[in-house]
UniProtKB/TrEMBL annotation:
UniProt xrefs under PROSITE patterns: HD
Species whose genome carries this gene: Thioploca ingrica
Domain of life: Bacteria
Assigned keywords, A-Z: Hydrolase
Chain ranges of the HD domain: 34-129
Gene Ontology terms, MF aspect: guanosine-3',5'-bis(diphosphate) 3'-diphosphatase activity
UniProt xrefs under Pfam families: HD_4
Protein name: Metal-dependent phosphohydrolase, HD subdomain
Database matches in PANTHER family: GUANOSINE-3',5'-BIS(DIPHOSPHATE) 3'-PYROPHOSPHOHYDROLASE MESH1
Length: 199
């Protein structure tokens, strides 16, 4: 049972994340509101991962704020405390680095993350793999989506051993994604769209 303080922290994090991401859209075909993503990550941790640690759930709601918005470490520390700030910083990529280097570092550093950060990273990858299969960015080719799946496997391999339920769910989502993309590879453009809407 969460305390009044913990529920307040959760709702404050949801409001803060919504405000910071309010002008952003996901790259999916529907250009869905960006806030949907951190909510999905937090919900996945709660439902599939059965995580009841408030710092992890709040960190999931805020996990992209430092990386993708004008949120500052000072704001997060003041509103949510040092533990939440440390978690958000731990899952934040250094955007000053080239994209390929950031992706390589995610693989190299994954095994050194805290348990909280590993769980948020794993849930984030699950959500992204699902989205890439069901509503991929319009500009992403089939090859690029397949490469993302392969890269996510390399990251997740270094995150294993922290939440069997989440890891099993990732494996299920990944297997379905690979099957869907393999089928799309054999089809024409129109048939490919039909498969995407059926999955």
């Amino acid at each position: 049972m969460f305390s009044i303080e913990e529920v307040t922290l959760l709702l404050t994090a949801l409001k803060f994340s919504a405000e910071k991401h309010r002008l952003q859209r996901r790259k999916d075909q529907e250009a869905s509101p960006y806030i949907n993503h951190p909510i999905q990550v937090a919900e996945l941790l709660w439902q599939q991962g059965e995580i009841r640690d408030i710092v992890t759930i709040v960190g999931a709601l805020l996990h992209d704020t430092l990386e993708d918005t004008n949120a500052t470490p000072e704001e997060i520390n003041e509103l949510f405390g040092a533990e939440v700030l440390a978690l958000v910083q731990e899952v934040t990529d250094d955007k000053s680095l080239p994209k390929l280097q950031r992706k390589r570092l995610q693989i190299e550093l994954a095994s050194h993350k805290s348990i909280r950060a590993k769980q948020v990273k794993l849930a984030d990858k699950i959500c992204n793999v699902y989205d890439i299969t069901h509503s991929p960015p319009q500009a992403w080719s089939l090859k690029r989506r397949q490469e993302y799946l392969e890269w996510s496997e390399q990251v997740v391999a270094k995150l294993r051993g922290i939440n069997p339920a989440l890891e099993s769910y990732y494996d299920t989502i990944l297997a379905a994604a690979k099957q869907t993309l393999a089928l799309q590879q054999t089809l024409s453009g129109d048939d490919r769209k039909q498969v995407m809407t059926m999955t």
